[in-house]
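Hello Y.,

Per our agreement to keep a running log of every chain we model this quarter, I'm adding this entry. I've kept the format consistent with earlier entries: sequence first, then predicted structure.
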Amino acid sequence: MVTIKDMAEVLGISTTTVSNVIHGKTSEVSQKTVERVQKLLEEYDYVPNISARSLTQNCSRIIGVAMKCRKDKYENMIADPFFGELLGAIEAEVRAKGYYIMIYTADDIQEILRNVLTWNVDGLILIGMLHDDFVRVRSRYKKPVVLIDSYAPREVMKYVNIGLEDEKGAYEITSYLLERGHRQIAFLADNMEGVDYIRYKGHQRAMEDHGVQTREKDLLIIRPGMMEQESSLNEIYHMSRDYTAFMCCSDYYAAILMAYLSDHGVRIPEDLSFTGFDDNLIARIVRPALTTVRQDVTKKGKLSVEYLLHMIQGLELTEWNVELPTELIIRDSVKDLR
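Predicted structure for the entry above:
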């Protein structure tokens, strides 16, 4: 197998220059030299030995992404438009920075740990982790870690999180419903942990600020499992006549429920108004188009990589908890009752 030294001798340049071109560090290399090296790489069909480079540089240039998913909710977590966009953004940024990515998804944190701890990665991005999950990871994994959308108590353990103004976004969209005359509003989620719980708190605060009492029965928990979801949707259908609007914790569930109720004769928004959260592809293509809260998922993914690489490089962070802004997006799924 041809070596960097062999190619340097053929081209009459230093091994450092050849290595820089191979690894994309071409800012101080002339375009002509870059083209000569790249042409020779193609002729020799040269493939860099990542393992050898990892040993010499004491780093792998690999970023690990560990995702905890509920097996009763997802057969394929990445098929969800939110996670698909998030992972796409992470991968693109990792690649742009000259790194590689490894991904592992499971519903059991112990399984995730058993596998991730065997990886020679420079750092981890954790998605879908609750407080106990993060404590377990941090007790065994000592390299840099960045979380996405975590609401673990900060007084227990210091950590870097790339999140969102979830409470504020939920407050604003509930306020929008209230300002259009809605008073019987149901909140739909599939759990009361992490992000969904914070969004529910924002919903509650908006109701209270507008003088509307929140009732326990107005919190509707959809059962996400494929076998349970049908019966869960049927129960919600029979309860829907008690409400004028549904505030859904995600576009995903808003679209599922809108489709089910439409199939059962409910007119949207004439009979029942809907809002979602995220503003992903689903919100834009469902009909009627969904009024929702927009978040910049791509920016969330890019920032998680940027912060992790800063930690890997030993740079000092000025912010440990990033909360990206939200934006109310008004479309066609809410009826004005005023």
